[in-house]
């Protein structure tokens, strides 16, 4: 998924890419002669958490070098599946893991070596945020989070001590609205197709995510009852597309967006008053002084999560370094950094130490801010007294209806999606 | 048969261009044709010889619709750029007497090309938007009460952007051929009692045909191969063949993208072949 690029420039990416080429051309000396400072770990991923600040901090705290490459989610999937030797650490989403794990290019991680394993939130272990919550549809992280043993190829149903991905970042997505232009409360996903917003609605043109938003709408309308929104049958796909194709022909949509910036511009210019959106895009609209709300809806959120996986070819000191990196990752600094952008960390309690009381209250507990809230890069995100849309962590992550996923009928769905765009 | 020196030198002289064309034109096209018969899984492609890609392409109603839309865009854009391009070129070639002014005006025509294609295209979006300058102006003049929705994210905006982007490709070749028309022919026409319109239709237009044809080839191929203008100006709501291909590439379906590209290439070649039946460009170059 092409998430917004935060905190790195094209130039720095090119540099990282160039360095990766150089590292491949001049392999490190033999292991026994190697010290930690000579170790370089090559990480690639979708850019949400591929932050240069993280690489810098790793060098400071752990002493070894972390090279980052950011790609779009299709390229990430392809690379993880076909070029296992081109990376050491894969920073991927859980639905990508479902696709890539069967190729055998990643190795399972021993949870006994993960210091903060016990503190990782339940979503990624039992699948339950709190003991009485239900596991949402789609590729829930817990369903692809464990395998039977170090060489396991099939996903286990419960915690086994061998993890596929160590969770790093996740969030709950919903619709963004312009409260000033709508002027009444919005409570349900059905509003996306409400004729009241004819010519003023939008949906994202990324098939794997767009289809989920469509499903949330169709189900909320009571038109379709899905067996599993994250794994639709052909019939369900056809029905969903038919409803949206008709809406498109009736002029419901102003435009479709593909990039982060497009979604911001559509909303900020008033072309669109209700649309699928990502959390940082809301922040970007707000920072222009335009009211915009990430509207919690009664049917729940569509959620996504990412984690880091280790390449099969990682051994010896590099493997130890990778475990050090993972333990460092979960120890709080990165978590705090990500949470101050509005994402969530897998081990919130360690992140707390790296956030001010005001920040923790605003981002995690859903309390009104007691002072100005700024992003890690210094942009103002909220004033004193503001409350986060959707409220606290448990309020938001506790209402996930569906996880981003990859369907068995993916190729069929993609074709249908192309038809929808062309219709 | 023994080669004479002359022949060897002739071959040698032709060799560099032949090699360049082989490496950078023929080889990639051959590669695309080969890949169009390959198969694809979700994240890899494998060599094979199968007709699946073409079968899917020709059996899908979307394909015909999208090729229809592509031809529609090409035709309307062609008609508009021709009308505007011919008028501009005519003005510069026959109404402006001083050569300095001609050159100056010609340079003025190229000014929009000093910025990037994408910028010129995107700058229309705030202008045409619901709360954009065009709508606000029209409302303040009292021409309309409600903003016009069809100004942006519609066929209108797509064609507007195409015309804006590609008119110069029509102006340049037409202006070039017009400048080569012998002025004494115009005098002769007038002496024989032809009206201005008759001179235009029976003297200038036939002599400008090669320029029009070159401009036509530019505009038609550019519009048929485009995907980004359609995506931005229609807000992803419309599709042309270029977008089909780019969607396939985004989803790692290279073989199916290659098959679509081959069909598009054939279509464009057929269109150009038909155009060349009308005018012999080589005679005039």
UniProtKB/TrEMBL annotation, chain A:
Name of protein: ABC transporter substrate-binding protein
Domain of life of the organism encoding this protein: Bacteria
Keywords from the named record: Signal
PANTHER family: SPERMIDINE/PUTRESCINE-BINDING PERIPLASMIC PROTEIN, SPERMIDINE_PUTRESCINE-BINDING PERIPLASMIC PROTEIN
Signal sequence region: 1-33
From TrEMBL, chain B:
Keywords: Cell membrane, Membrane, Transmembrane, Transmembrane helix, Transport
Chief subcellular location: membrane
Gene3D superfamilies: MetI-like
CDD domains, per the entry: TM_PBP2
Gene Ontology BP, a term: transmembrane transport
Record-annotated ABC transmembrane type-1 domain positions: 67-275
GO CC, alphabetical: plasma membrane
Record localization: Cell membrane
Membrane topology annotation: Multi-pass membrane protein
Residue ranges of the TM segments: 12-38, 73-91, 103-125, 156-175, 254-279
Family, per entry: Belongs to the binding-protein-dependent transport system permease family. CysTW subfamily.
Official protein name in the record: ABC transporter permease
Organism ancestry: Bacteria, Pseudomonadati, Pseudomonadota, Alphaproteobacteria, Rhodobacterales
């Amino acid at each position: 998924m092409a998430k917004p690029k935060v905190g790195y420039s094209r130039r720095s990416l090119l540099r990282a890419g160039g360095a990766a080429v150089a590292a491949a051309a001049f392999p490190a000396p033999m292991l026994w002669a190697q010290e930690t400072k000579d170790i370089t770990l090559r990480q690639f991923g979708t850019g949400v958490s591929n932050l240069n600040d993280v690489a810098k901090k790793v060098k400071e705290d752990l002493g070894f070098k972390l090279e980052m490459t950011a790609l779009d989610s299709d390229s990430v999937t392809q690379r993880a599946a076909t070029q296992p030797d081109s990376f050491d650490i894969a920073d991927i989403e859980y639905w990508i893991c479902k696709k890539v794990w069967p190729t055998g290019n990643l190795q399972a991680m021993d949870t006994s070596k993960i210091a903060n394993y016990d503190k990782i939130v339940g979503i990624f272990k039992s699948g339950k945020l709190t003991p009485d919550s239900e596991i949402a549809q789609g590729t829930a992280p817990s369903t692809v989070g464990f395998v039977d043993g170090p060489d396991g190829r099939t996903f286990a149903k419960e915690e086994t001590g061998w993890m596929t991905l160590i969770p790093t970042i996740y969030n709950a997505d919903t619709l963004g609205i312009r409260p000033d232009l709508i002027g009444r409360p919005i409570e349900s996903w059905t509003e996306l197709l409400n004729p009241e917003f004819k010519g003023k609605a939008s949906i994202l043109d990324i098939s794997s995510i767009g289809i989920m938003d469509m499903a949330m709408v169709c189900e909320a309308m009571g038109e379709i009852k899905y067996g599993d929104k994250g794994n639709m049958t052909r019939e369900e796909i056809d029905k969903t597309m038919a409803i949206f194709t008709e809406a498109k022909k009736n002029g419901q949509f102003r435009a479709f967006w593909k990039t982060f910036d497009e979604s911001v511009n559509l909303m900020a210019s008033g072309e669109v008053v209700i649309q699928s959106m990502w959390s940082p895009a809301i922040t970007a609209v707000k920072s222009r002084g335009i009211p915009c709300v990430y509207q919690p809806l009664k049917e729940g959120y569509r959620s996504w999560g990412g984690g880091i996986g280790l390449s099969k070819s990682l051994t010896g000191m590099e493997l130890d370094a990778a475990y050090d990196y993972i333990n460092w990752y979960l120890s709080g600094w990165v978590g705090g950094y990500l949470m101050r952008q509005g994402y969530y960390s897998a081990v919130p309690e360690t992140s707390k130490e790296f956030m001010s009381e005001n920040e923790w209250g605003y981002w995690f507990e859903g309390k009104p801010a007691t002072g100005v809230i700024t992003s890690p890069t210094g942009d103002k995100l909220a004033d004193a007294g503001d409350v986060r849309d959707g409220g606290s962590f448990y309020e938001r992550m506790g209402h996930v209806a569906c996880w981003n996923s990859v369907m068995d009928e993916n190729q069929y769905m993609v074709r249908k999606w192309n038809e929808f765009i062309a219709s | 048969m023994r080669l004479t020196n002359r022949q060897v030198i002739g071959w040698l002289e032709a060799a560099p261009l032949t090699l360049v064309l082989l490496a950078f034109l023929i080889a990639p096209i051959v590669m695309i044709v080969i890949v169009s018969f390959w198969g694809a899984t979700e994240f890899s492609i494998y060599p094979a010889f199968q007709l699946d890609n073409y079968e899917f392409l020709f059996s899908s109603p979307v394909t015909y619709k999208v090729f229809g839309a592509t031809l529609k865009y090409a035709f309307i854009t062609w008609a508009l750029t021709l009308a505007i391009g011919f008028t501009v070129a005519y003005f510069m070639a026959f109404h402006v007497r001083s050569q300095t002014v001609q050159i100056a005006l010609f340079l003025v025509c190229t000014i929009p090309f000093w910025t990037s294609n994408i910028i010129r295209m995107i700058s229309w979006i705030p202008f045409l938007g619901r709360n954009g300058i065009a709508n606000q102006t029209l409302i303040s003049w009292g021409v309309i009460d409600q903003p016009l929705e069809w100004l942006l994210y519609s066929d209108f905006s797509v064609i507007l952007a195409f015309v804006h982007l590609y008119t110069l490709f029509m102006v340049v070749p037409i202006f070039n051929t017009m400048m080569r028309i012998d002025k004494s022919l115009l005098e002769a026409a007038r002496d024989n009692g032809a009206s201005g319109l008759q001179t235009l239709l029976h003297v200038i237009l036939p002599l400008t045909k090669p320029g029009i044809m070159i401009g036509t080839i530019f505009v038609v191929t550019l519009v048929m191969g485009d995907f980004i203008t359609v995506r931005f100006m229609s807000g992803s709501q419309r599709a042309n063949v270029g977008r089909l291909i780019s969607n396939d590439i985004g989803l790692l379906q290279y073989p199916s993208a290659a098959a679509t590209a081959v069909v598009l290439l054939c279509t464009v070649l057929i269109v150009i072949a038909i155009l060349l039946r009308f005018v012999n460009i080589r005679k005039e170059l």
